[in-house]
Write a structure and sequence with these properties.
about 200 residues, alpha/beta, 7-stranded mixed sheet, two-stranded antiparallel ribbon, 6 helices, binds 5-O-phosphono-beta-D-ribofuranosylamine
Length: about 200
């Protein structure tokens, strides 16, 4: 079976990228990580990609005058590399409606909370402030509205007495590294699709 050519978009260190690359080394994994794009030139994730022999390109949003013109450059790079699926992992840019529409059903994101709770940034502090006893992570399809797309998969962790945003983040991140490859596998195999605003399991 041809493996689905997948790109990872990131802005930071790329630990989720590492876990996706590791999963994709299995011969029967249905996706290959074929391109990594970052809006940050010195993002650690670009080095992670290069060390694995994966093309890694920085496209700075600062070089564009609007959200959509930046997204059009990202779109062009994805098409040039013949990418069919995109996994965002710590990509700190909000997309234009245009991009979300063009890539609808092909765009995944991982967020470090049990959505719909705690969207946006400083997520673990939000969870601690709310006093929840369980947190976790979510992989969802991206839609135009931030952190609001149909949910593909979630994993939970306990929030422990004495947790700080850092200790909770570390516990959630361990789960992220298992959840994202699992979710990508489901989508790449066509077992989950975005239909009428819902993630439908086929
Ligand atoms: C992860 O916690 C992810 O959930 C969030 O940004 C972080 C990225 O971490 N969206 P890394 O760059 O994959 O290590």
């Amino acid at each position: 079976m041809a493996r689905v050519r997948t790109a990872v978009l990131l802005s930071g260190r790329g630990s989720n990228l590492k876990s996706l690359i590791a999963a994709a080394t299995a011969a029967d994994f249905p996706a290959e990580i074929a391109l990594v794009l970052s809006n940050v030139e010195n993002a650690g994730g670009l080095e992670v990609a290069r060390a694995a022999g994966i093309p890694a390109v920085a496209i700075s949003h600062r070089d564009f005058e609007s959200r959509e013109s930046f997204d059009r450059a990202i779109d062009a790079a994805l098409r040039e590399a013949n990418i069919a699926l995109v996994c965002e992992a710590g990509f700190m840019r909000i997309h234009s409606d245009w991009f979300a529409r063009v890539w609808e059903g092909k765009l995944l994101n991982i967020h470090p909370s049990l959505l719909p709770a705690f969207k946006g940034i400083r997520v673990h502090q939000q969870a601690l402030d709310a006093g929840v006893k369980i947190s976790g992570c979510t992989v969802h399809f991206i839609v135009a509205e931030l952190d609001s797309g149909p949910i593909i998969a979630q994993a939970s962790v306990p929030v422990l007495p004495g947790d700080t945003a850092e200790t909770l983040a570390a516990r959630v991140l361990e789960k992220e590294h298992k959840l994202y490859p699992h979710a990508l596998q489901l989508v790449a195999e066509g077992k989950v699709k975005l239909e009428n605003g819902r993630a439908v399991f086929v």
